[in-house]
Amino acid sequence: MRIVSLCPSLTELVFDLGRGTDLVGITDYCVHPADGTDAIEKVGGTKTPSVSRIIELEPDLVLLNDEENRIEDARALEGAGITCLSSLPRNPAETATMVRSIGKVIDRPALAERIASEIERRSNRVRIAAAPHPSVRFAYLIWRKPWMSVSGDTFAHSLLALAGGVNVFGERPERYPELSDEELLQVSPSILLLGSEPFPFAETHRDELARIADMDRSRIQLVDGEYLSWYGSRTPNGIDYAAAVIDQARTCVSHSPDDC
To answer: How far is CA 175 from each of CA 41, 151, 152, 170, 178, rounded to the nearest angstrom?
Structure first.
C-alpha cells in the first residue's frame, strides 16, 4: 500500500500502526518519529502541498485533517481518482473512533484497537480520578500577536477539561478566539498555560504575560503543545499529560507559589 499523510499526528499514527514503510509522501512538519520521517519525501506544508507531486507518487490513500489541510487540495486529489480520508476529532472518544477507522483502512485493525482501547481506558481513569477534586480555571494560549486561545470545541480543551479544568474561554463561538490584553486581565484564570506550538512560547513570555494579566509568574506555565493537540497514537500519553498539568495547577492554586 502506498500512503501519503498530510497531517503530522496522522503520520506518527501510521508508523505506530506498523505501516511507516508504506508512506511515500509526508509534509515538512511531519517530524515524528524522526528516525522514520527523515527518509520520506516531503511534499510541502499542510496548507501548501504539491498536489501534482502527490498525484505523481500514485498513492492508494491520502490522509488529511479537516482543519489543517485545505478542502480544495482534497478535492483535487479526489478528482485525480485518489482515495482521501480526512478527520477532525475534537475529543478522546472521537480520536478512538478515528484510530479504528484508519486501522481498518490500512489493514491494521488489531493494533488500532489496542491504541483506541487505551485511549478509552485512560480517559475513564482520569475522569474518575478528577471527580472528587476542585476544578481549575485555565486559559490555554496558542499564539502571540494577537493572543489566541482555544474554545470548548477543540481537542486541547477536551483533554484539559477531562482532567478537571474549566476553560475560561470555553464558551467562545470561535474555535481559536483572538484576545486583547484587557480580556486576559479580566478573565483572571487560576492558571495560564502557554503551548509550545504552533507559537513557541518561552520563558520570556511568562514575564510578559505576568505583567499583562496581573498574575504571579508561578501560575503561568509552559506546556507541551504536541501532547495537548496531536491526536492519534500520542493521545493516551496526552491524556495523562493533561491530567498532570491540571493536578499541578490544582496544587499551585491551593498552596503557595513555591508548589507550582
So the answer is: 32, 5, 7, 9, 10
